[in-house]
Amino acid sequence: MGFSQQIPWRKVKLICLVSVLVIVMHILWTFTATSLSEDPAMEVRRGRPDSYEVNMHGHIFPSIEKTKVVQQYCKKVDPIRGVISTYDLPEETDYSLNTNGKYPIPQELYEADKNGTVDDQIEVILVPFSHADPGYGMTFEGYYTQRFVHVFSNMVDYLTSHGNMTFQWAETVYLERWFREINDEMKKKVRELIRRGQLEIVLGGWVMPDEASTHYQPVVDQLIEGHQWLQENLGVTPTNAWINDPFGYSSTMPYLWKKSGIDNMVILRIHQAIKSTIIRKRGMDFMWRPYWNSNNNNDILTNLMPYFGYWPGDVCGPDPSICSQFNFLHLPSTEAKPDLSV
């Protein structure tokens, strides 16, 4: 016995209509997104989801400021949006060395306009930073008595007399050691510098922990100890992290930092060849998300510094000799050097 089935033309027409509408909407959305990227003001007015704000010292820097800087000073850098997988990076990386036996760093250079237009202006931001290992070339007490006690005292004097200057400190263990022996008046000055945003505590764990061989439990313990001391003595909880010296980074750490109240972090030490690959991908600023995290609730804004180290000669750009002129502590000169003994 045969039978025939009638074609549901109404459903077919409805499916075709919906498909056409989806295609038209996609074309319009793509055109709008392209137009917005060419108009910084419109980008902010429409509230694009990729715009963000950074909270530092209680001040808000909206995305229009970032867009303005990119448009005026960094026209050679085209931002990208996408996902970079750390699993894929090794296969995408060229491990060849240059003639100096180092991994080459990609550089984009262009000739400056001889007329000196605004496109050739470069805004340089100097951020005095610190990193204090509690045990490396000297003992803990050796570092404290020979170096850091003088750094703290000079910091308070200088910041108090120069209201437009700032300083940052990362390891709470040395702050606690210093607070044991200073008087109440000095402690009051430190708290005032914190309140004014001139002194910022970054990360604020008891130490800056290793991330390659440590278990998460002692990492959390030292972070709690540092943050509790900061709350009890300075009334502050860090929101930014300066993590410049671990030799490699674990994807678990950003999750822990985020849970502790950290919103932004700066890192440095990864394999230089892989770092060069990330530079070519224009991915030095990114939202770090662990593989096991399925949503963006724990993403943390991360800046990866481009060069090998963090000494003046390392971070000066294509010509390290420029910054080396200001590395006063190590200049072979007959001129007076900063006196760390007073």
TrEMBL record:
Keywords: Membrane, Transmembrane, Transmembrane helix
Superkingdom of the organism of origin: Eukaryota
Transmembrane among keywords: yes
Domain Glycoside hydrolase family 38 N-terminal stretches: 124-326
Xref: Gene3D superfamilies: Glycoside hydrolase 38, N terminal domain
Keyword check for Transferase: no
Residues that span the membrane, as ranges: 12-31
InterPro entries in the cross-refs: Glyco_hydro/deAcase_b/a-brl, Glyco_hydro_38_N, Glyco_hydro_38_N_sf, Glycosyl_Hydrlase_38
Name used for this protein in its record: MA2A2-like protein
The species this protein was found in: Mya arenaria
